[in-house]
Write a structure and sequence with these properties.
The protein is α/β, with parallel strands linked by helices. The chain has helices at 38-48, 65-74, 137-150, 180-189, 198-205, 245-258, 263-277, 290-297; strands spanning 2-5, 9-15, 30-36, 53-60, 78-85, 90-96, 102-107, 128-131, 153-157, 175-179, 211-215, 221-225, 228-232, 302-306. The protein is globular, with a radius of gyration of 18 Å. The protein starts with a strand and ends with a strand.
Length: 308
């Protein structure tokens, strides 16, 4: 069982010819709304990848709440732990450029009131707890402590960046996933030199029993557990929208690890899911299914080396 403790949003997406510079207005031809939030995105991605998933979070009592939960409900995610609080559902405003790059602004809404005591009775040694950093730091820290006390495994996705103080949590998690910016932020906080390689930051995030994963966009993935280092090259794809790639990676990686896949296979499935998510628009609508993930993962190679 995967329990996701995180944010639930509605995403408003504007298609743009290019991303604006500070103070600049760029006009696009169209806009769409999608269910989102990094917690909800990862819960949906894990469910579509074949895992049993429970979501713990909050939506408001507004018109955005229903659309924000619709995909999770359709995918069979257990929503009994989602609270409907007075206030507004989280909202993300996303600009997507013609080359697939994006710019995101978020309003937390009731996500700012999510509390770790909502996890009471939800954690056990059979649970993989998946966390991100769109919630406040306090409930994230409390959730990690509760998971440790209950014997649950913890996967921390370091996105979004901006709180290097959470580097102190890494010693209490089993898996950490970060992109290059997040890995540098946390790696430097843990003593790595600024300007180090992705491999060096990956080593700084990892440990003898902690799997650290750094996603490198079109350059694939590097991961480390103890002295074992793995690399997976990204498949060639036609990029449409990168918005959901990181969440699709985390969800598929978590699903693979939860069912007992080894690290190389889990990394290949995460890489496949992240790549496939770039071929469609929207953080949740782009999340691929288990069959597509497995088919692309079968074509990928995970190279293993031993660090000195």
């Amino acid at each position: 069982m995967i329990t996701v403790f995180g944010s639930i949003n509605l995403d408003l997406v504007v298609s743009l010819p290019r991303l604006p510079a500070p103070g600049e207005t760029i006009v696009g031809p169209d806009h769409q709304s999608f269910a989102g939030g990094k917690g909800a995105n990862q819960a949906l991605a894990a469910a579509r990848a074949g895992a049993r998933v429970r979501m713990i979070g909050a939506v408001g009592q507004d018109a955005h709440a229903g659309p924000a939960l619709a995909n999770l409900e359709a995918a069979g995610v257990d929503l009994s732990g989602v609270r409907h609080l007075e206030g507004t559902t989280g909202l993300a405003m996303i600009g997507v450029a013609a080359d697939g790059e994006n710019l995101i602004m978020c309003a937390s809404g009731v996500n700012a009131r999510v509390a770790a005591d909502w996890l009471e009775g939800e954690l056990s040694p059979e649970v993989l707890l998946v966390l991100q950093r769109e919630l406040r730091a306090e409930p994230i820290r409390d959730a990690v402590a509760r998971a440790r006390a209950a014997g649950a495994r913890v996967l921390l996705n370091a996105a979004p960046s901006g709180d290097a103080d959470l580097a102190s949590l890494l010693d209490d998690v089993d898996i950490v996933v970060a992109n290059e910016i997040e890995a540098a932020e946390l790696g430097i906080a843990r003593g790595a030199a600024p300007g180090s390689s992705a491999e060096a930051f990956c080593a700084a995030l990892g440990g003898a029993e902690r799997l650290s994963v750094v996603t490198l966009g079109p350059r694939g993935v590097v991961a480390r557990l103890g002295t074992d280092v793995w690399r997976v090259a990204a498949p060639r794809i036609e990029v449409v929208d990168t918005t959901g790639a990181g969440d699709a990676f985390v969800g598929a990686l978590a699903a693979a690890l939860d069912r007992g896949a080894d690290v190389p296979r889990a990394l290949c499935e995460g890489t496949a899911a992240g790549a496939l998510a770039c071929t469609a628009t929207g953080a949740q609508t782009s999340s691929p299914g288990a069959a597509a993930i497995a088919a692309l993962a079968d074509t990928l190679t995970c190279e293993r080396t031993t660090a000195s």
